[in-house]
Amino acid sequence: MPSYVAQVTDWEHLFIPNLMNVPTLWAGALGLWGLGWLDTTLPFIVWVSKLAVFCTMTFTGLRFLGWRKTIVVAVFGAVWLIPMLTPTENRATNHHGR
User: pTM of the prediction?
Assistant: First the structure.
């Protein structure tokens, strides 16, 4: 398995790691990463509870799909794909480096 520290030339080798790291980006936005310049860390309970509330509200809202929610799901798909495809096109990974 190749090392992902340096830039990899094949985008196929970057697709899966970038796909797997997108949830880390979402969890980081919900409190997994530190505040400000990432130097002030938050307690474990903060980001776990925020992520649980986010997932609960998302899946509860998806129970009843209308045309408006279908558009929102499509936008969410784009929000998922953009952080995954941008580093892949630049031959980099979206790994946070924790």
Answer: 0.57
